[in-house]
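Hi V.,

You were right to ask for the full record rather than a summary. Here it is.
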Amino acid sequence: MATNTVRIWDPFVRVFHWSLAGAFIVAYVSEDDFLDIHTFAGYTVLTLVALRLIWGFVGTRHARFTDFVRPPGEAIDYVKESFLGKAKRYLGHNPAGGLMIVALLLSLLITTLSGIATLGAEEGAGPLAGVMGSASHAVGEAVEEIHEFFANFTLLLVFGHLIGVLFESVVHRENLVRAMITGDKPLRDGESQ
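Predicted structure:
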């Protein structure tokens, strides 16, 4: 049983998380029909990812990459142990969650950068308009395909993330969604911060 709580997620991580989720949803659903909204949401995603990358090096303990980035083998072992009911509880991200965060950040980075390139090629707008505006139609189409692939791949990762959060909430008997809202997780008997 929980004896008290400990602050795990700082305000920046929580605001980042929910803002990123909202901006990605807006960008994804607005797609071709509302280009101005889509573009603004995409720039918002890129800005948030850039800030999170910086925060991964200078942020609070559990926000730093050194706290949760582990080799893929550790993530696979963690998933196996979870299904066997033997997985260690982590106050911050577990190895599989850490791998998912890295995958999401990389996929979002590729999605947004390819989106900026597509905007330059197809609309002659944005910071890459000068470079991409003179690109061939085939190059513009290829960049757009990359953008669409990674947007869909990111959505797939988001679903995987949600399944992982629900699964871990059940396995470790804690509400991880609430923790990302409040920033606090229960500190159980015998655990240290």
